[in-house]
Amino acid sequence: MTSRPGAPAVVPAGRLAAGDQPVLPLAGEPELPVPPPAGELELRPWRLDDADADALLAAGRDPDISHWNLFSVAGRAEARERIERMHQRRAAETGAVWAVAPLGGAAVGLAGLNDVDLSGGSAEVVYWVLPAARGGGIAVRAARRLGRWALDELGLRRVTLRHSTANPASCRVAEKAGYALVATQRGALEHADGRHDVHLHALAAG
Cβ of 142: how many Cβ atoms within 10 Å? Predict the structure, then answer.
């Protein structure tokens, strides 16, 4: 989504980078039980500490995360560099990335906004969850919470979520989080085994 030439920006420049990155609680829901050891969860900024660096290392070594996200991390030093780039992207207002974590604990997943276009009012939600925390609706809650924050608090008009048509688990996450399936894009994403057709889901303001 892009704005018309001369049209006012949907979200004024500077709003995403203003102040501290917010911490977003992930409230429990009866239909989405939280599996141990997660407990109460929140979306919070990634930290430059060993625990969060090790979470990125674990994600890079997980075959599912690596396959669907083309994601790899060579060591703690590279993990910290990635965390620094996350904060730089928010400062540049091109993206914003949160750790999904139990209160006071290390990250068990990631949720973020990619391809942020404040002027046009759009962004894409991305996420992954480490194996030990899967199966209890964490990805659904993170995608729903981040999408609503992007629309209701940041002020975007449209948030999308894309996944390979060969990844039905992500399709279920998108649907349960309230993202409507709006299109199939041919050969739109590169994965470890080549280009895949993609389901495009969207969540719109109002």
Answer: 27
